[in-house]
Amino acid sequence: MADALMAWNAGEYGVALDLWAPLAHDGVARAQSNMGAAFLEGRGVERDPEKAAAWLRQAAEQGDPGGQRNLALCYYEGWGVPQDQIEAAKWYETAALQGDADAQDMLSWMKLVGGGCPQDYASARLWAEKAAAQGRAGAMARLGDIYHNALGVERDPVRSAEWWGRAARLGMAEAQAMLGAAYLAGKGVARDPLEALHWLLRAEAGGAGELATGFLREAQAHTKPSQRAEAARRAAEPLS
Q1: Nearest-angstrom CA–CA distance, 205 and 67
Q2: Is-contact 64 29, C-beta < 8 A?
């Protein structure tokens, strides 16, 4: 397993699959999960969602969290299995309960919007907190939105800005846009048009221009040329 993982990480997908295949046929859950992921992504083999789902199911039923999460993805997207959000939510929760951060993040989102499971703001926040504790920026941004929109909690601009800030510093463009808007309005943080413009420029560069555009124009209108130059300088620096 270790040799196969080294080969995979080195881009030697065929070598990794040659090592995993006999283990997977012998019932090793992690090898089955990895075989499924390879067929799902089309790495080292031709992409085959049906074979991927078959391998992932074997791994998932043996309790492998990666297999459970990827099987959930197959059901969510309809890859190799009939599209079924209820089944997707079931497998995401199974993996989430084992501590899989990506599954926790996705389950949080599904519970927030009621996709494949009843809408449950409290559970959405709980799973987002667990995923955020494992460094998932999407979960951090979602917590910012939850406190901003008072979804099952009291509206809390300070907590919103704190969570958006954590996600923004990890490079999430949507959170950068919301943090910029918070600085622009002075909601949850001290009003600071220059800092607002800095984060909004990052958001625009990161692909969240549609969300940032209106705030960006306002921030530019409330800053001097020297401040705009400073904001651009900050936005060009690598995130710490």
Answers
A1: 35
A2: yes
Nearest-CA neighbor of 175 among 157, 160, 188?
A: 160
Domains of the chain: 1-100 (1.25.40.10), 138-240 (1.25.40.10)
**Alpha-carbon span 124 to 186, nearest angstrom:** 27
**Nearest-5° angle of CA 125, CA 128, CA 133?**
125
| Cα-based distances in Å from 97 to 28, 37, 90, 94, 198 | 21, 21, 11, 5, 38
How far is it between the farthest Cα atoms of the chain? 68
Is residue 160 within 8 Å of residue 175, measured between CB atoms? Answer: no
Is the model's pLDDT at 240 over the cut of 90? no
213-224 pLDDT, tens digit each: 999 999 999 999
* Coil/strand/helix, residue 184: helix
pLDDT above 90 for 124: yes
| pLDDT digit string, tens, across residues 59-72 | 999 999 999 999 99
